Amino acid sequence: MSDLLTYLGILWPALLAGALVSLSHVPLGQQVLRRGIVFIDLAIAQVAALGVILGQAAGLELQGWMTQVAAVVAALLGALLLTWTERKRPEVQEALIGVLFVLASTAQILLLANDPHGGEELRDLLAGQILWVSGEQLVRAAVLTAVFLAVWFRWRTRFGHAGFYVLFALMVTMSVQLVGVYLVFTTLIVPAVATYRHAASRQLLLGYGVAIVSYLVGLGASVVTDLPSSAVIVWAMAVIAVLVHLTARGRAPVDLERH
Amino acid sequence: MIRRLVSICAALGLLAAVPAHAALRVLATTSDWGALATELGGDKVNVYTATSALQDVHQVDAKPSLVARARTADLVVANGAELEIGWLPVLLRESGNAKVQPGAPGYFEATSAVRLIDVPSSVDRSMGDIHPLGNPHIQLDPRNVAAVAKALTARLAAIDAGNAAYYETRGVDFQARWQQAMARWDTQAAPLKGAPVVVIHRDQAYLARWLQLDQVAAIEPKPGVPPSAGYLASLVTRLGADKPRMILRNTYNDPKAADWLSQKIGVPVVTLPFSVGGTPEAKDLFGLFDDTLRRLLAAGR
Questions:
Q1: Is the entire prediction scored with pTM above 0.90?
Q2: Fewer CB within 10 Å: C terminus or N terminus of chain B?
């Protein structure tokens, strides 16, 4: 009995983290897919990590909230850069996002080549593990998600490119630390791909369903098999997404309007 | 529906994990200290090992059973010297298990029982990804293993007082067998004394000190930082003229760098287990040293 309670105690914070990430990432992901910029979360996560390493190199004692500030500032700068490139060179925006990803990643290698102390730990600072979510992190994520949902559903039509990129950078910097980069990418893209051929009015709710049920099934399967939870959830979501995608068969394909 | 699913999952998890109840629940961070806890605790302990030998112990994938064991453990056997700094502090903090927090009797660090080498006199950030407390990879010197065993026996007896006599007996028995094995290893290793070797980085420092190997070069002069082109070129020139006997790497290291250098200078690469389970032969701590020496001697011939 105590073991059962132990497992329930492990699962519920992870499930809550997954649900919180899903709430913001499903609508963001449908937007990302529509814009054809699917690798933007990887780029933003690398830019945030670069911010932390730059802060360290500049001699800041990066502890606790200072790390967050460095990561968020860098992510926002990255977001503004991408807003600018989308205005100037919209036709190659996805390529530029890829380039930003490799530049941010390799800049970390170059910085750490001369200042590598604790490099491993610094690089891992922004990489979360869904099973190790703390109560404090959940509270922070819940507040940020509530603000996001209010802004998103009230002003979405009005805030334009810059608003989208800024919101995106904030949410991804938070979620990567909560559940790790694989789950962030999956939660963003997979429900969007699963639902894009369904009726537009149902896409959001269906996407939420795909994401949250996948976290539940994936966590359960990870307990049963004792395999690393993040990887199991990713696969659960992929399988569930294929099933949901197939239920839309026969409908006319909806064009993804690319900007 | 959801609640039923969760309870089914949890019930299945219950079947899969940790059946023994009477035994002391041990969470070991590495296979070496897990093996030692099993040697010393016998059937009075139930040992869970967080990482496999082929895995980088700096990073760990969170499995449900690991988090469950952290919550229910009676004793955590960590390596210490910041080897697990990337994950163990978070895991223990989130476990809410007061028995195994650092400083509590249920938290044991192997490195607390030995003197570390490579302790930097000042933390100089230009030196690489070094550990400020000293080199943490202590398990490859059998004298260290003996010292850790002594401390761990005392700790087991302290936190499980009812079985103290049992642990003392097993401890004495282990030390006797270990001393015997060490005498054998010392004899076997005589031809290796002073052998010039190339290492990947500082992982084998304790092994080199024990066997008195001469570490003439490191492929990664700054741990954790890929070597520059200029450094590799100078390495090939220097070692090509004055050939070392072998290049050492551990099974968990990427083989590319060692193989590359081996081809350039025509010196064999020796792959060492590094930890219990690192090679099929290194089944326990005795096997770890038997196999390490066998591989070194085979290449040194």
A1: no
A2: N
